[in-house]
Specification:
Helix content is about 75%, strand content about 0%. It is mainly alpha-helical. It has a domain of about 140 residues. The longest helix is centred in the middle third of the chain and has 35 residues.
């Protein structure tokens, strides 16, 4: 089983399965949109196989931390302009669910609240807490540590980077499936594009530093910034 999970076919099929699980957990399952099973597996698989690289924390200098914060802020600004202004204005208007990822996520919280007999603010808070606690570590361990790290040994870095970033983007697209059949295609495609670009950057940073420390840190800061507003 271990050898299969470390093969190209094993990595690809595992990624497909986890994406499908996330799709189900963000749509038809009773606890949607909380992708609990996918989150647990994304942590468990790389931890069990030990496919990740961390290196020494001492190798990370103080300016690396500052550069990581600066990078996260810049990515957040660029992402905000792309997702909140450029795409909505090109294909509709800001605040329109079909084209604005922020509005689409709010619609998702409202739909989830109605299903779970709660209120949108509570759902949003719980969802953001889950993302805050899990995403930086879980996503970097799975998509960079497991997928990229394993595929890179069997294919090459460029292919491994593109494949891992592609699945990373697909997982983000599943977050809006609760809105089906009114799935906001434009907003989802924009969200996938941003996620894909971010995945490529984290793959490059992982390759350059040979450690998940800075990718996790940048990812964590990026997810923290919206909570400060």
């Amino acid at each position: 089983m271990r050898n299969w999970l470390l093969s190209v076919n094993g990595v690809l099929l595992t990624a497909v399965c986890l994406t499908l699980i996330a799709a189900l957990e963000n749509s038809v399952l009773p606890w949607a949109p909380f992708f609990v099973v996918q989150a647990v597996l994304a942590l468990a698989i790389p931890l069990a196989l030990k496919t990740y690289r961390f290196g020494s924390l001492r190798a990370v200098r103080w300016w690396h931390w500052l550069a990581g914060i600066a990078a996260a802020v810049l990515i957040q600004v660029v992402g905000g302009l792309f997702l909140g202004l450029l795409v909505p204005n090109l294909f509709g208007s800001p605040g329109e669910t079909a084209v604005d990822i922020g509005a689409a996520l709010m619609a998702m919280y409202e739909t989830a609240a109605a299903r779970l007999n709660s209120d949108p603010a509570t759902i949003q808070t719980a969802y953001m807490v889950m993302i805050f606690l899990w995403a930086a570590v879980g996503e970097e361990l799975f998509y960079r540590g497991y997928m990229q790290g394993t595929l890179e040994k069997r294919l090459n870095f460029n292919r491994a980077m593109l494949i891992s970033a592609g699945f990373f983007a697909l997982r983000h697209a599943t977050q809006l499936l609760l809105l089906w059949p009114g799935y906001p295609v434009i907003a989802a495609l924009a969200w996938m594009t941003f996620s894909f670009a971010f995945g490529l950057l984290m793959s490059y940073l992982y390759k350059r530093t040979n450690s998940l420390i800075l990718p996790i840190f940048v990812h964590f800061i990026l997810n923290t910034i919206p909570l400060l507003g």
